[in-house]
Write a structure and sequence with these properties.
- The protein is of the alpha/beta class.
- It has a domain of 119 residues.
- Helix content is 18%, strand content 50%.
- The chain has two helices and twelve strands, in the order αβββαβββββββββ.
- The strands form two sheets. A five-stranded parallel barrel has the order 7-8-10-11-9. A two-stranded antiparallel ribbon has the order 1-2.
- Helix 2 links the parallel strand 3 and strand 4.
Length: 188
């Protein structure tokens, strides 16, 4: 069983690493120069008039800076270091004792006390508390809280405001046929 667990973790980490490599290669091909939002002014171009004597002016889309990705990220407190708020992780995000952020984790987020990243594709786990907006995978802790779970919440107390599949002692899904259920609760 330990070998199977290690293989699953290795596959998740390698999958996250390939996502990071793909994002980096896409950034090199695009060769987009990052410019702060405030410095980007919409450019205009002049087009031949559809009606003689009138000139049409069309706005151009501003340049969007590329997303940043890390393979390994360590958080110590809510928003500390600041990179935990806005840099995505394709691999492992560790909370010593807390990890948080408004970014995405593709892989594993594991924390001693609580894991509070907005979007997780993979596993979010901690000893006490997990919170996310979107989970695509497994959320495992004493207490789990998420807006939407495409996978499983496994813990003593599980709370979801959208769809979820929950296993625990106390399970609540807002808008479910029966919102409060012991042992198992489901809303698709």
């Amino acid at each position: 069983m330990k070998k199977l667990s290690l293989i699953v973790i290795a596959l998740i980490v390698l999958g996250g690493f390939s996502i990071v490599q793909g994002a980096e290669q896409g950034n090199k091909k695009a060769a987009v120069k990052a410019v702060p939002e405030k410095a980007v002014a919409p450019k205009t171009e002049t087009k031949k008039p559809a009606v003689p004597g009138k000139t049409a002016v069309l706005p151009q889309t501003p340049v969007v800076p590329p997303e940043k990705w890390d393979f390994l990220q360590i958080g110590f407190w809510f928003g500390f270091p600041t990179s935990t708020n806005n840099v995505n992780v394709g691999g492992i995000k560790v909370g010593a004792p807390i990890s948080s952020g408004e970014s995405t984790v593709c892989g594993i987020e594991a924390a001693l006390v609580c894991a509070v990243t907005d979007n997780v594709d993979g596993i979010q786990t901690s000893c006490i508390f997990n919170k996310a907006k979107l989970i695509n995978g497994l959320q495992f802790s004493i207490m789990n809280w998420s807006e939407e779970v495409n996978g499983l919440q496994l813990g003593i107390v599980n709370i979801a405001t959208g769809k979820s599949f929950q296993i625990g002692i106390v399970n609540y899904i807002k808008g479910a046929l029966i919102p409060w259920m012991p042992v198992i609760n489901v809303k698709f």
